[in-house]
Amino acid sequence: MSTPALKIYNTLTRKKEDFRPIDPAKVRMYVCGPTVYDYAHIGNARPLIVFDVLFRLLRHLAKQGVWDGGKGETKVTYVRNITDVDDKINARAAESGISIRELTEETNKVFQADVKALGCLEPTVQPRATEHIAQMIAIIERLIASGHAYAADGHVLFDVPSMPSYGRLSRRSLDEMIAGARVDVAPYKRGDMDFVLWKPSKDNEPGWDSPWGRGRPGWHIECSAMSWAHLGETFDIHGGGIDLVFPHHENEIAQSCCAFGQDVMANYWMHNGFLQVEGEKMSKSLGNFVTIHELLHTEKFGGRKWPGEVLRLAMLRTHYRQPIDWTVKALEEADANLQTWRRSLGNVLPDDITGAADERVVLALADDLNTHEAIQVIGSTAEASSSKVDLANNLAFLGLLPHRYTRQGYREATERISRKFNVSHLEDWAAKWNKFAASPKNIGDLSEIEDAITAEDLNVRIEARNAARASKNWAESDRIRDELAAMGIALKDNADGTTTWEVKR
Ligand code: AMP
Ligand code: ZN
To answer: Is 321 exposed, middle or buried (0-12, 13-18, 19+ CB in 10 A)?
Structure first.
């Protein structure tokens, strides 16, 4: 297959450009990750999903040898950090009466489960800010030594006017920024625009020893330190949501470029548009947010739970730079599409799915991540009845195939069902279902079995039957018993009043 050149829109130049890595042997990408004090909302899911698609595409193109003359050995490193030191974290831990460590660990656990459910691959590295304090201090020392930062009153500040090109990414001039800046009363600041690199910590706040006393880092310095530690002084792609352009990314650039004496921190800056609710950015501060966790695990929205693939498809339908309006209707549409596509997959075997996408899908994505177009292509492969494996591969490439449809996922699902229904071989279980005379080999059969009855559902039915028996409603209790028997499940009422069940053999 002919391999397309990758074009990406670069916020730095405001142009779509051909992507060329600094070093053809490695492609390096950094994306600003979550501050782990609260559940991530579905707006935060947007950069996670967008840059996951880019990561998948970069790996694919690397394997094709696009940048190393056909060898296919280019290594793709994707770094997404975890901000685990922040004043919001301190405040939340104090409010909830738990330690900072407990709060960040617990929040990170939920975050990891959320992104996995959204079909995102694990980044190559997920560095934590608290594990990079030494690098932050080293960068700050360099900035002071080169006259770009100053210590005052236990704080260290970046001296913005010391960097003539400050404002290049966001295209703001220093004069404009100073005119627009709020009057900041902090007495230790030389200039209104100067920002904090390090600040002192009180005894009850997390802090580290430093040349400026016990303190903690400002937010921006974290990303300069973690990208340096894992990607070097300059790297290829830096990403995040559009709200990060100013001041966060502008300040990252100021710190890294001045500390390392480089003109650029990253060559390509990519920013996703907002996910909006009634025209406004979804955000914690506006209170108009819906968490990923709630969508996945509760029935608060549209009266049902939403699988991760549905959330992902709803997101990818829109080009990443456009705003998205968040509605339950969009989820319903995405769900209907996925269901139609999955029905077409019926007898594809997990072993057939290699994840090698259609050339047209790759072409669409290589054009500044045109996921909208890629999904149109998927729609058309779904209509061609001859190309079920293509459809499965295209869905897999975009991360839209539920995990249980993959080879590994199929194996896990088989084990899960066996365990859940207490049968040692899935074949035994399948044999009880009239529909599946043989063992369920394809993903359609497997899904049907798993969807048909869940262990929870079984317990609910047993409880309903116990309630019917307690009120001597024998007709109802028999009806439930017969219904389960028809599914191959035998109930046994024990002398001690409990009910157990087994699969009929
Ligand atoms: P935050 O926790 O606010 O630092 O956000 C984490 C990531 O989510 C950043 O890349 C933000 O730019 C991005 N983000 C936050 N809110 C939205 C939104 N409503 N739509 C799209 N991206 C967002
Ligand atoms: Zn950052």
So the answer is: middle
**Do the Cβ atoms of 241 and 46 come closer than 8 Å?**
yes
pTM: 0.86
Distance of CA 408 to the CA centre of its chain: 21
Residue 367 shares a structural domain with residue 446: no
Alpha-carbon distance of 252 to 221, in angstroms, equals 7
Closest CA relative to residue 413, chosen from 400, 403, 423: 403
- Rounded CA separation 334/112 (Å): 23
Q: Is 83 a member of any domain?
A: yes
> Among 272, 295, 312, which residue terminates a domain?
272
Q: Are residues 94 and 229 in the same domain?
A: yes
- In ligand 1, which atom is closest to the CA atom of 274? 20
Q: What is the pLDDT of residues 13-61, one digit of tens each?
A: 999 999 999 999 999 999 999 999 999 999 999 999 999 999 999 999 9
Domain membership flag for residue 124: yes
Nearest CA to ligand 1 atom 2: 34
Ligand 1 atom at shortest distance from the alpha carbon of 240: 10
Separation of alpha carbons 367 and 399, rounded Å: 18
Q: Are residues 174 and 255 in the same domain?
A: yes
Find out whether the beta carbon of 282 lies less than 6 Å from any atom of ligand 1. Answer: yes
**Other Cβ atoms closer than 10 A to 202:** 9
Choose the final residue of a domain: 354, 373, 404: 404
Among 310, 312, 372, residue whose Cα is nearest residue 342:
310
- Separation of alpha carbons 105 and 125, rounded Å: 17
Q: Can you list the residues of the chain whose pLDDT is less than 50?
A: 1, 423-426, 429-440, 505
Ligand number with the minimum distance to the CA of 242:
1
367 lies in some domain: yes
Q: Tell me the residue type at 250.
A: E
Give the structural domain span for 283. Answer: 276-404
Residues 265 and 280 in one domain: no
C-alpha 94 – ligand 1 centre gap (Å)? 24
Asked if residue 18 lies in contact with residue 7, where contact means CB atoms within 8 angstroms, the answer is yes
3-state SS class at 75? strand
Is 316 inside any structural domain? Answer: yes
